[in-house]
Amino acid sequence: MKIQIINGPNLNLLGKREPGIYGNRGFEAYFDELKERYPNIELEYFQSNHEGSMIDKIHEVGFTYDGIVLNAGAYTHTSVALLDALKAVQTPAIEVHISNVHQREEFRHKSLISAGCKGVICGFGLDSYRLAIEAIINLKTL
Ligand code: DQA
After folding, report:
1. Residues lining ligand 1, judged by CB closer than 6 Å?
2. Under the phi-then-psi rule, with left for phi > 0, alpha for psi from -120 to 50, and beta for the rest, what region is 35?
3. Domain boundaries, the chain
4. Is the pTM of this model over 0.90?
């Protein structure tokens, strides 16, 4: 099984960025933990601050991988292009957020990408990513 994790803008600063909201752990250390936890899954991690690069990655994996775990960061709330990319490919995507966006500013309550995703997980800190992997595993065994 192959799963691609895609993190969008500013998520390269996890651990340093607003730790009260996003915690004080960098993603790389957490990703190593995920790989140890799922030795039988080919897990890949990609981060970009650029919308087009994220779209390119969705196209690249979207016909061969079993799942995409996507934290699109602020593009969640603005990007029709990401929605279209998710709709264009076959691989199911799970939308993920570290924070509970519904407890935050109103502009974060609306996601433009949810309609292109199989489901949404938010508010569980970094554990949101593990829950999304579990969701993809369950999709495959349903
Ligand atoms: C986020 C929530 C978004 O609103 C925000 O722009 C982010 C991170 C989250 O993981 O909680 O960059 O996607």
Report:
1. 10, 71, 73-74, 76, 97-99, 101, 108
2. alpha
3. 2-141
4. yes
